[in-house]
From TrEMBL:
Residues 18-74 form the RNA polymerase sigma-70 region domain. It comes from Catenulispora yoronensis. NCBIfam families: SigE-fam_strep (TIGR02983), sigma70-ECF (TIGR02937). This is SigE family RNA polymerase sigma factor. SUPFAM superfamilies: Sigma2 domain of RNA polymerase sigma factors (SSF88946), Sigma3 and sigma4 domains of RNA polymerase sigma factors (SSF88659). PANTHER family: ECF RNA POLYMERASE SIGMA FACTOR SIGM, RNA POLYMERASE ECF-TYPE SIGMA FACTO. Pfam families: Sigma70_r2, Sigma70_r4_2.
Amino acid sequence: MARAERDAEFSEYLRARSAWLCRVAYLLCGDWHRADDLAQTAAVRLYRQWPRASRAENIDAYARRTLVNVFLSEQQSGWFRFAFPHRTPIEREAPALDADVSLDLRAALERLAPRQRATVVLRYYCDLSVAQTAEILGCSEGNVKSQTSRALATLRTLLAPATAAELEGITG
């Protein structure tokens, strides 16, 4: 494949899927600035591997796996803690959803461990099977099931409505 042809094909793919990559990255990290950086890093890696990626059965799956690998790699290195101290959020137009529920869910997702967050995003946002998620994360299906179970239990606890006793403690 000629370089110009390869570049045009890659550019077309990225133009069509960059917003999707950023949304997935945001769900993984919870910060739009960092999500943009993760998506850009994943795009660079995807470009380097484009001859192989373009022959993949599912290019989106290849790109998603690249993005998750970038995210997990940064989490393990701890680099992001120094590179992204405290930023103001980017203003984005939100879909017509219950804002309180959406904010609560995002805050709860941020409190999950990185691999648990990645598992939940891949399973429920990207709608992947246990086997597909295991392949992307490079672990066993049993590990995906246990990570998902623990993550959902944590989310249920974090998102449980306040009991009357808790509310009395706040107001009394």
